[in-house]
Structure prediction request, 81 residues.
Amino acid sequence: MAVKIYSTPTCPYCNMAKEFFKKSNVEYDDVNVAEDEKAAQEMVDKSGQMGVPVIVVEKDGSEEVIVGFDEAKLKELLGVK
Prediction:
């Protein structure tokens, strides 16, 4: 399983998601789309959205894209309580 979050430093929901990952002991890659134009375009291509956070969970060969911080959905996908 791999988790990637497209975020910006000033986004409160991004920070909430990252705090959730830390508390749940979930390793993740943090991509700052404010500094990386290529990553920002990749985020838009995956989600159809300009807003952050966009969280991508790769699991069992499939990819789930979550726009915003949806704690319940993340718990379900990641198998955490």
In short: Residues 16 and 69 are 7 Å apart (CA to CA).
